[in-house]
Amino acid sequence: MTLPGDWSDWKTWAILIAVIILLYIARPHLQRTFRSLFMGLAYMLNRLALWFGTAAANMYAKYCETVAAHLADEYQDKLYSHEARLGARSNKHDREILHVVGKLETSSQEIEGSVETLKQINLPQTTLDAVRMSLAETVNAKSQARLTSAMNQVKRTVSAEIQTVRPDLQNIRSHLKPIGENVVKLKTYGQEFARLADRINSDFDVFEESIHSDDRVAVAQKQSILIPLLIALIVMFVALTGAFLNFFLIARPMAEIVGDGLQILGMPLPTAAALVVIFLEAVAGIVLMEAAGVTKLGFFLTIGVAGRRILFWAAFAFLCGFSFFEAILAMQRDSLIILDQQTQVMALGDLVVEEPAGVSLIMIAQIMLAVVIPWLLAIAAIPLETVVKNSVFLLRIVGHVILVFLSNFFRLLSTVVKSVGLFLLRLYDLIIFLPLAIEQVVQTVRHAGKAGKPDEART
Amino acid sequence: MMRWLAAALSLVILAGCGAIKSNSRAVFVLVDASGSYARTMEESITTSRLIVAKLNPNDSIAVAQISSCSFSDDSVVFNQRLPGIPSQASHMKQAIFGALNAYGEGFKSSDFTDIHGALRYAANELEANRATSRYVVVFSDMIEDLAPDCDTSELSLDLAGITVIATNVTKTKADSSNPDLYDERLATWEKIVTDAGGQWRHAKSRDQLLDEVF
Question: What's the complex ipTM?
Answer without folding.
Answer: 0.77
